[in-house]
Specification:
Helix content of chain B: over 70%
Pfam families (chain B): BPD_transp_1
Order of helices and strands of chain B: HHHHHHHHHHHHHH
Radius of gyration of chain A: 26 Å
Protein name (chain B): Carbohydrate ABC transporter permease
Number of strands of chain B: 0
Largest sheet of chain A: 2 strands, antiparallel
Subcellular location (chain B): Cell membrane
Distance between the termini of chain B: 31 Å
Strand content of chain B: under 5%
Number of strands of chain A: 2
Radius of gyration of chain B: 24 Å
Family (chain B): Belongs to the binding-protein-dependent transport system permease family.
Strand order of the largest sheet of chain A: 1-2
Strand content of chain A: under 5%
Oligomer: heterodimer
Number of helices of chain A: 12
Distance between the termini of chain A: 35 Å
InterPro entries (chain B): MetI-like, MetI-like_sf
């Protein structure tokens, strides 16, 4: 059975020099074909075996574990839906889902807006060296570790001696309890996350804008389109496939936020910045409730799948492919 | 082409370019500000670290904070652990992604489509959902609290495989066919024709892997329980815990030390890193 599923590359029909000779037309696979299959198996083995052991089996494992009570020390016992029931009545878990969704909405919206406006602004006329300087600056935070950045930001956002409050004090604004009030803490976690992450969407948009043929904008300019109208009517529809990728990746990443709240606030004050992944971590590795932790993990997985599916469904109406 | 028309169009708001550059400069300052502050504070004496307004150029520059870091935590050990883990993962991913990407792009075999579908689907599965069973699998292998436990599960990379497949698909098929006419077998065609051409693509995979795993926090936090297996990010957060808010400059000196390799990779590997990220949104 030959495979012709390769749809991305249909330029040249495959040359099969040996097919012309009668010997190669035999029913049994030729030595070369057997060699190719063996090579394919060897080449794929590390990736496929690794993915099966460390992703596929663990997904099934998570579902199974979520149906058992288990604390590593005692033998596991059947729990049925008990873990899910206790998770759904656990106010910390419910709050963590709400926090994560609130975080996702604001962080992704801010990230996409900032990245898009910077990419569009950068796309205008300016010297090449200046353009690459700006591009490097916006991209830079992305190479730093979220954990150490959060350590730094914890000092910058300190209410009493932090630089941020000193800075806004220059404009006569009273010190803000960034990390010690409920709304302030969530806002700070979002700011820190967006500060580090917007470069990712920014690079996607820069790439997407480069892919738009210059002629289209030139034609639009001839028709008298300018400024905002040009962007709304032409750039955004042409950029919509990139926008879809940026928002899908942005949402999937945002739903997994961990380092920033863990280092900045440890979930507090109260539970106001506790996220779903923090709850998975605490339930599994601090309280040794593996069954409940797995149940929360399965719910997070379902949430991610659902949000992504909704996005692709919605995108059919808004995404235009050239 | 329509350069003149465009220029007339732009002349309508001549303020444009300067306003744009000014806006971008403000944003760049906001982006780099925290980093500049970190470096300058790490060079102040611990006593000066609280000073406001923050001095960008320290009045009494001092490396006391850096000596403090070396006194508090075993920087060399943490750096060695981080280097070992990151380098082995990067090399491992280049090998696994290079091989699998080539197989998906250029070899014929059964179940190619479902297998590739499986690889792509795992890109969607968040690490946190599988971490409990992964921990148990590693425990059964005796790999928890070892560096190997961090390294081995990170070898397969769905994104890297996808990237390398695209990369190989972009190479002309005629090269391999010419080699085949000359009598080269499938292995020779890969080894002598396509693998050497794949170097830039492999560099993208390597740099992406380095950047991600050098900064990785969640898996080491769960897997490494004893201090001698900590990586730099873990050591830093524990440094902060030991000191509370006592001496900012020492903690920030630690942050700067851990950033240095990432900054070096940024300087050298900026282009591969950028291309790796951009290709996530553009080639599909």
């Amino acid at each position: 059975m030959t495979d012709t599923t390769d749809t991305t590359d249909t330029r040249v029909p495959v040359l099969r020099p040996r097919a012309a000779t009668p010997r190669a037309a035999a029913v049994r696979p030729s030595a070369r074909e057997r060699g190719t299959r063996l090579l394919a198996a060897l080449f794929l083995a590390p990736t496929v075996v690794g993915i099966v052991i460390f992703t596929v089996v663990p997904i099934i494992g998570s579902v199974v574990l979520s149906l058992f009570h288990w604390n590593v020390i005692d033998p596991p016992g059947w729990a049925g839906a008990a873990n899910y029931r206790s998770v759904f009545t656990d106010s910390t878990v419910l709050v963590s889902f709400r926090n994560t969704l609130v975080f996702m909405v604001f962080a992704v919206a801010a990230q996409l807006l900032i990245a898009l406006s910077l990419a569009l602004t950068l796309n205008g006329r300016m010297p090449g060296w200046l353009r690459s300087l700006f591009r490097s600056a916006f991209f830079f935070p992305l190479v730093l570790s979220a954990a150490s950045i959060s350590v730094v930001m914890k000092y910058l956002f300190n209410q009493d001696f932090g630089v941020i409050n000193w800075l806004i004090g220059l404009f006569g604004i009273a010190p803000v309890p960034w990390l010690t009030s409920e709304h302030g803490a969530m806002a700070t976690v979002i700011i820190v996350y967006v500060w580090q992450q917007f470069g990712f969407s920014f690079l996607l948009f820069v790439g997407g804008l480069n892919n738009i043929p210059k002629e289209i904008h030139e034609a639009a300019a001839l028709d008298g389109a300018t400024g905002l109208r040009k962007h709304l009517a032409i750039t955004l529809p042409l950029l919509s496939p990139t926008l879809l990728v940026a928002s899908v990746v942005g949402i999937i990443n945002a739903l997994q936020v961990f380092e920033q709240p863990y280092v900045l606030t440890d979930g507090g004050p109260g539970d106001s910045t506790r996220t779903v992944v923090m709850v998975i971590y605490e339930k599994a590795f601090e309280q040794l409730r593996f069954g409940e932790a797995s149940a929360v993990g399965v719910l997070l997985f379902v949430l991610i799948m659902a949000v992504t599916a909704v996005q692709f469904r919605l995108s059919r109406r808004f995404v235009h492919y050239q | 082409m329509s350069q003149a028309t465009l220029n007339i169009g732009r002349a309508r708001y001549a303020l444009g370019p300067w306003a744009r550059i000014a806006g971008l400069t403000v944003c760049a300052l906001l982006t780099l500000g925290p980093v500049v502050w970190t470096v300058s504070t790490s060079l102040r004496t611990p006593a000066d670290s609280f000073n406001l307004p923050p001095q960008i150029i320290p009045t009494h520059p001092s490396t006391a904070a850096y000596r403090g870091v070396f006194d508090q935590i075993d920087v060399w050990l943490l750096a060695l652990n981080s280097t070992l883990v990151t380098a082995l993962i990067a090399v491992g991913q280049m090998i696994t992604a290079g091989l699998a990407g080539y197989a998906f792009a250029r070899l014929d075999f059964r179940f190619k489509k479902p297998l590739f579908g499986l690889v792509l689907a795992t890109m969607m599965v968040p690490l946190q959902v599988t971490i409990v069973p992964v921990f148990l699998v590693l425990k059964s292998m005796g790999l928890t609290d070892t560096l190997l436990g961090l390294i081995i599960p990170a070898f397969p990379t769905a994104f890297g495989t996808f990237l390398m497949r695209q990369y190989f698909l972009g190479m002309p098929k005629d090269l391999g066919e010419a080699a085949m006419l000359d009598g080269a077998g499938p292995w020779r065609i890969f080894r002598s024709v396509y693998a050497p051409l794949a170097r830039p693509g492999l560099a993208i995979v390597g740099v992406l892997a380095f950047n991600y795993h050098w900064n990785e926090f969640f898996r080491p936090l769960i897997l490494e329980t004893s201090g001698q297996n900590y990586t730099l990010p873990l050591g830093l957060v524990s440094l902060q815990g030991n000191l509370g808010t006592g001496s900012i400059s020492v903690v920030l000196a630690g942050v700067v030390l851990s950033m240095l390799p990432a900054v070096a990779v940024f300087a050298v590997g900026q282009r591969p890193l950028r291309e790796g990220i951009t290709s996530a949104g553009v080639n599909r």
